[in-house]
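Good day; I would like, with your permission, to put a structural problem before you. What I wish to show you is a protein chain and, alongside it, a tokenised description of its three-dimensional fold. Please examine both parts with care and let me know of anything in them that strikes you as inconsistent. Thank you for your consideration; the sequence and its tokens are set out here:

***
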Amino acid sequence: MAGNLPEEMITQILIRVPVKSLLQCKSVCKPWLYTISNPHFIKSQLHHAVKASQYKPTLLDLLDPLPKLFPDIVNEDFLFFYEENYQLRLQLIFEALLDTNKHGFSLNKGFWYDSIADDYKVFRIMFVVSSGYILPPTVQVYSSNADSWTEFEPPNNMNDWADYYASRSSIAINGILYISTDNNLFSFDLKKEAFVLVPFPGLYQEKRSKIMEFQGCAAMVFESESGVALWTLDDVSAHNAWTKRFGIEVDSEWNMQLYCYLGAGQFYGKILINQNDLYGILYDYEKRETKYYLPGEDNILATLKYTETLVSLDGFLHVE
């Protein structure tokens, strides 16, 4: 029957097939093998999967211990990334990351897809130790297209390494890298190669989230005397760039932290109740409902938004 359908219709059907089944479809016939292996089809499947995940998000738990190949998420020899920013999850080793300065350390790292340049990039903030002193950091960006690192000098107010140790929160949105430290938020325009210090909203008492993406904008949750609310960063060049979007209902005695926006009105986070019980939460800001659940495993290192795709890049190693 498939032979009677137009090729374009078959392609649109295949784009909607789950990835594991799609890989099996390669064995059906040579035309399907050619279609599914075509770079244009892979990109179309990626964009469809990302769009669909906004309405039906999936969470993935990363368990400890990691595979034997990865004794730790980060060590001196390589980095192991689980990418959240573009909703594209990859397990990878970059050969280029082996070229790490043995006399330095990196506290803030990230991996994302640059849709403008059609390029996969890695960034890290490197600190070098010399004669017992920690020198000012450098921001390094790796391009998979160029297969090389580019180094940038950040402003002086990014020099406190302890801020990065406490926070380690970053995200890339529309070509701008946002780095949240314990006390500040910095933006780095990857095209203009320009840093901007972005003050947090005034009169806030506590941060209740990591830096995350919400409807195409950088966003954070802050607690103030008036309550807990989500704010979006609309223009990094403006003095008053933050906009209060909506309040979040949470008991003030509970320590809540939101990690990412999943789509379909839901945020994922964690909440500590009675200083003892740690629960995962799904907060629906449209319905103002919070769902609590106990993790199914005790050895969860991280929980991420997960989207299956066909993307496979040169130099990346697949891990079962």
About this structure: The helical segments are 7-15, 19-25, 30-37, 39-53, 161-167. The longest helix spans residues 39-53.
